[in-house]
Amino acid sequence: MPGSSHERSDAARNRQLLLDAAEQLVRQYGADAVTMDAVAKLAGVGKGTVFRRFGNRAGLMLALLDQSDQKLQWAYMFGPPPLGPGAPPVERLIAFGRARLALVEVEGDVRKNADIGGQYSGPPYNIAKTHVALLLRQAGAPGDISLTADTLLASLDAGLVLHQIRELRYTPDQVGDHWEHLVRQVTAPAGQ
């Protein structure tokens, strides 16, 4: 996948093995249950390998988020439509939101455990915001495009979506349908 750093092939393979193990543990048990020991055991490596690679648990969680962000970025920049190029902007926006929502299962708990600050000024958020703003412009959305992009992205916040699903008992499909409704509202021509 594009976006990988220049590292030895065995180091890259081990890194991916560890991230895959951590992601599997998050999906099965939630991020709170993921330990460096559990990741090492599932990946079949020593615990020291995990610490050398990621430094600490927060570093592992940040690496998981980075991997997730890179996969999504690749999909909307180069993947097939409707998420990737070639579909109308409104359809791409809808596909983008649904793709982000599909990642909530892993990302929601991981973001909480990564102890991240400044998430709105970092590259992953700004790349997503630039993408959403571009599609809003292409769709002819009225108003302050930057503010609208922030507002739309706020509705995809993993913590909020997990609250909606776990506490308020909305289904992921209901949240996705609401995303589509919001996109269609903000991109509708004035007066409709």
> CA-to-CA gap between the ends?
42 Å
| Rg (C-alpha, Å) | 18 Å
- Please give the number of β-strands: 0
Biggest sheet character: none
- Computed structural class: mainly alpha
Order of helices and strands: HHHHHHHHHH
Instruction: Please tally the helical runs, counting DSSP H or I stretches of 4 or more residues.
Output: 10
Mean pLDDT score, rounded? Answer: 89
Beta-strand portion reads under 5%
Helix share bin: over 70%
Low-confidence stretches: none
Shape: elongated
Structural features, described:
By secondary structure, this protein is mostly helical. The chain is built from 10 helices and no strands. It has helices at residues 9-29, 36-43, 47-54, 57-78, 89-102, 104-114, 123-138, 145-154, 158-166, 172-187. The mean pLDDT is 89.
